[in-house]
Structure formats: C-alpha cells, structure tokens
Amino acid sequence: MLAERYLDFKTGRQRDEWQSPRLHPALSVIVLAAARWHWLATAEPAVVTALLRTPAEQRAIYPARPGRRSPHEFGRAADIRVTSLADGQDEAWARWLNDAFAYSGRSGLKTALVHQVGDRGRHLHLQVGPGEDAPGEAANSTDSPLV
C-alpha cells in the first residue's frame, strides 16, 4: 500500500504484525493517519515500536500488576516513537488524533496519549476501544458519530 511509505517499523516483528489479521482494521486507519501527520511535521516516516503483545510480555512490562490487560493483546493498540518531534509536538499530535478519532469504549479513555512506561521510552500510544466495530462485525451499539 502506498500510504505505508509514511510508516516504518522498529523490527521485522512489527512489520510482520502490521499484516496480521489480528489487528483491528480501525487501528490501521488511525496509525496511517498518525503516520501522515508525523511525515508532515518531520519529513520522516513514523516508526511503530509495538503492535501485538502476548500475555507474558504484558506481565513483564507491568510486573506489579500481573492481571493488567492491554489492548495490544487484542490487536487494538500501537506504539509510535516521538523522538523526532520538537518539544510539545508529541502532545499536539495526540490532541489532533483524539479530535479526529473518538474512542469508543470506557468513558474517560482516549484514542491517543503520550506516555512512558518504565524504561520503555516516551511514545505515542494509539488504541481502538472495545466499542469500535470492524467491517463485517455485528454492531456493538447503536451510537454512531456519523448519524
């Protein structure tokens, strides 16, 4: 896909996972929109550092909370580097994405946030809520932002 020229991957693992049918299709759209924004801001592709995560990897990241689940485990999250952005641009990036893509799920959560977990580095975390239907799935709700 030509749009993926705006996108790069930390390792071959993320490149392979990008093609996985386990990834929610809405996540792909959001990641590509984020990559386009990043390209316009930096003239460099956005680098995806994490997509799918196993339960064991999740426990290793949050050892004090072994029961904590992540949308990464369900193909509903991606992490992207922010290191090539100027100060404050990462937060502007997250605001733009949240304005463009509403989170469909638990109240108070957002589609995009910039954060750091342990020593894993500051990054943009993108997520698709559990209320987001995929094409061909039964609707989870009757609420539609397009109606």
Task: Describe the model.
A hairpin with a 7-residue loop joins β4 and β5. The chain is α+β, with helices and mostly antiparallel strands and 147 residues long. It has one domain (2-127): 2-Layer Sandwich (Muramoyl-pentapeptide Carboxypeptidase, domain 2), CATH 3.30.1380. The chain is built from four helices and five strands; from the N terminus they run βααβαβαββ.
Oligomer: single chain
What is the overall number of helices? 4
Class, according to the CATH hierarchy?
Alpha Beta
Distance between the terminal alpha carbons, to the nearest Å? 30 Å
- Principal-axes geometry comes out as globular
Q: Which runs of at least 5 residues are low in confidence (pLDDT < 50)? A: 141-147
CATH fold-level name: Muramoyl-pentapeptide Carboxypeptidase, domain 2
Taken as a percent bin, the fraction of beta residues is 5-15%
Number of strands: 5
How many domains in all? 1
Radius of gyration: 15 Å
What's a quick, concise take on this entry?
With 147 residues, the protein is α+β, with helices and mostly antiparallel strands.
Task: Fill in the keyword field for this structure.
disordered C terminus, alpha+beta, five-stranded mixed beta sheet, Muramoyl-pentapeptide Carboxypeptidase, domain 2, 4 helices
Task: Give the arrangement of secondary structure elements.
Layout (H helix, E strand, L loop, with lengths): L6 E3 L2 H7 L6 H18 L3 E5 L4 H7 L15 E5 L7 H12 L11 E4 L7 E5 L20
Parallel strand pairs: 1-2
Antiparallel strand pairs: 2-3, 3-5, 4-5
